[in-house]
Amino acid sequence: MAGALCRYAVGVAWPHPSGAFPWSTLVVNTSGCLLIGVLLVVVLEITQPHPLVRPFLGTGVLGGYTTFSTASVDVQQLMDAGHAALALTYLGATLGAALLATWSGMTAARLADRARRSVRPARHGRSGA
């Protein structure tokens, strides 16, 4: 429910008129895919959380946030309104952005983990020898 409420808030704050490019849906899906990429690396490669963490956050929260069904409806509405080129552009942008965002999230999480592991604690000298 939390993810769906966030998605709804973005749609209310950034509505698009009929026949216009659905930026809010694209941004929601892209940011959700970025977070899914981060989540997958964190729960599968970096940590060993409870087995229900991944389905709760991935399928539940982020699955409720992302809205590829709405993206499909947006494409259909653009086609019905006679905006075939815009519909195809939006479809391609959605697929490309989703894949790139997922890869970027995974890459960023791996780099952050690598940087975290390479930081060594400062050595403290002996006092009062």
Overview in brief:
With 129 residues, the chain is an all-alpha fold. It contains five helices and no strands.
Q: Any overview of this molecule?
A:
- With 129 residues, this protein is an all-alpha fold.
- It has one domain (2-10, 22-115).
- 75% of the residues lie in helices and 0% in strands.
- It contains five helices and no strands.
- Helix 2 (23-46) runs antiparallel to helix 3 (53-65) and helix 4 (68-80) packs antiparallel against helix 5 (84-118).
- The longest helix is centred in the last third of the chain and has 35 residues, at 84-118.
- The radius of gyration is 20 Å and the shape is elongated.
- The N and C termini lie far apart (61 Å).
- The model has no long low-confidence stretch (mean pLDDT 93).
Average pLDDT confidence is 93
How large, in whole angstroms, is the Cα Rg? 20 Å
Largest sheet: none
Number of strands: 0
Number of helices: 5
Find the structural class using helix and strand composition. mainly alpha
Unreliable parts? none
Shape: elongated
Strand composition percent:
under 5%
Helix-strand pattern? HHHHH
Q: What percent of the residues sit in helical stretches (DSSP H or I)?
A: over 70%
